[in-house]
Amino acid sequence: MKIADSTVLVTGANRGLGKALVEEALRRGARRVFAAAREPLADADRRVTPLMLDVTNAAQIRAAVEQVDALDILINKAGISLQNDLSDRAALERLLAVNLFGTYDVTHAFLPVLARSRSAIVNVLSLASIAAVPFDSLYSISKAAAFSLSQSLRALLAAGEVSVHTVLPGPLDTDMSRNLHIPKAPADSTAQAILDGVEKEEEEIFPDPMSEAIAEGWRSGAVKALQRQFAGYVAQSPIK
Q1: What is the pLDDT of residue 238?
Q2: pLDDT for 182
Q3: Cα separation of 151 and 239, whole Å?
Q4: Catalytic residue (one of 2, 139, 184, 233)
Q5: Contact 53/61 with Cβ under 8 angstroms?
Q6: Alpha carbon 119 to chain centroid distance?
Q7: What is the pLDDT of residue 75?
Q8: Is the pTM for the entire model greater than 0.85?
Q9: At residue 164, what are phi and psi to the nearest 5 degrees?
Q10: DSSP letter assigned to residue 97
Q11: DSSP secondary-structure letter at 94?
Q12: Where are the beta strands (DSSP E) in the chain?
C-alpha cells in the first residue's frame, strides 16, 4: 500500500489530526484527497476536494459516496470526546453515534468503491480502546467498541483484499485534549507515523511515544495471538 498516486478520503478533516493527515497524504504524493467534515474548509491545493459530511447523517453519507468515483484509502478520523461519567446515558449514546456507528456507516457506505481495487480502511481510535481512561470512561467505551468493529472488519474483508488498520495513539496536542495537563504528541508527526504504518501494512499502528512503548508487547502478546486464531474461523463460518 502506497500513498503516492492514491485517492484518499479523510473524515474529520478540518482540524487537528484529520487536517494533518490530509496534509501528510498530499506531501506523500496522493493523487486526490477528499477532505470530509461537518464544516469543510477550502484548500489551495487542487488535489483536495472538500466534502460536507456529518458521519451521523445518513443523507450526507449517501451524498458523499455519490461524489467519490474511486477510492484507495478511507481514513475514519471523525470522533468526539465529552468527558462525562458513567451515569450519563445520553452522552454515551452520542459518543457511540459518532465514534462507533459513524465509523460503521461510513465504512459500509464506501465498501463498494473500496472493493474495486486493493484498498485500505484506517480507523483512528485511541489507546483508550484497549485500556479505559477513568476520567473519560464513555469515550473509552465507544473507542473499545470501534476497536472490536475494526477487528471484525479485518477478518471479514481480508479475502477481498481490503486491509483494515487500527490506529492507537496516546493523547495528541489538538483541540480535543487541550484541557488535559498531560504529555501530548504533535498532530503532524503522528500523521506521518500513521501513514508510515499504512504503507508498512501494520494492522495496529502505534504512532507516538506513549503508544509505541507498548507496541512490541502488544504485537507479540496473547491478545494478538487470539485475534489471529479467531480470524481463522471466518473461512469455516456458514455466515456470509
Answers
A1: 47
A2: 61
A3: 17
A4: 139
A5: yes
A6: 14
A7: 98
A8: yes
A9: -125, 125
A10: I
A11: H
A12: 7-11, 32-37, 48-52, 73-76, 119-124, 162-167, 204-205
pLDDT, position 161 = 84
H/E run at residue 160: none
Cell 468526539 sits on residue: 80
Contact 72, 6 (CB under 8 A): yes
224 belongs to the catalytic site: no
DSSP secondary structure code for residue 133 in this structure: -
Please compute, for residue 122, the number of CA atoms within 13 A of its CA located in the half-sphere on the CB side: 34
Cα angle, residue 155 at apex, residues 154 and 160 outer, rounded to 5° = 80
Residues of the chain with confidence (pLDDT) below 70: 174-183, 227, 229-240
Cell output for 196: 508510515
Residue with cell string 487541550 = 178
**Would you call 104 a catalytic residue per the annotation?**
no
In the chain, the amino acid numbered 97 is A
Of 19, 77, 143, 184, which one is the catalytic site residue? Answer: 143
DSSP code of residue 145: H
